[in-house]
Amino acid sequence: MKKRIVIKVGTHVINDEERLSISRFEKLVEFLALAMDKHEVILVSSGAVATGFSKIKLDKKIISDKQALAAIGQPYLMQYYNEFLQKYGKIGAQILLVYDDFDSRKRTKAARDAVNTLLKNGVLPIINENDSTAVEEIVFGDNDQLSAHVTHFFDADLLVILSDIDGYYSADPKEDKNAKLILHVDKIEKSELCKNINAGSEFSTGGIVTKLKAADFLLKNKRSMFLTSGFDLNDAKNFILENRHSGGTLFMPKGKFK
Ligand code: ADP
Question: Which of 32, 33, 67, 227 is deepest in the core (most CB within 10 A)?
Fold first, then answer.
């Protein structure tokens, strides 16, 4: 059955230290194209700041410089997406949102109508937060929350987070060798949401807590989230293209069947 799926890709996945990782980007776009043949797909893509930094070396620690990097990087990122999507006869369209857009029914409806029209015409909506007006994203947040909002308010069945980690573990696998991958989660404990765990790199702003917050928001709204690797897309492909859960964590409300 055709589903509406939001796919969120983290900075780490598409960028190496200082520039776009062409091989990972190529594989990501191939996956997006395959997913678009089966489902309605909305992409939420990070990576504008890192892409901007590959063009000009501003100081990422200064907010206005970071906003400038996002403004420089965003159009390049869109250009790369469209260059690669073209190989599959597909096109992407840019939608920049801020949180206030979800506070106003009128603006949410306008954005949803635009997204619906893009999807109806087989176009991939590529969403990012409008960094030059949304200071909070750069300071506190990340696209995990944005993608959870997009999933809920644009009425998608599932959010897929492609991360630098292949799922949610019993402990941080970088710290604890005995950490075990958890395949199914239907409830997130409050204590898990309060942990202060840093994000993976200077470009990542998320960390596992923001992913758990996104999952918590979706579970409370009777929607699902799948956290999986963006480096090795096998589990994502199995799940999205073949409905087979070979790895990755599925956050699904109790009683809801895929
Ligand atoms: P992304 O850049 O993909 O948004 P982040 O690097 O910000 O992702 O966050 C993922 C990181 O969170 C992982 O690389 C991992 O080291 C860390 N982490 C901490 N606790 C956990 C956990 N319980 N399960 C999985 N990852 C965890």
Answer: 227
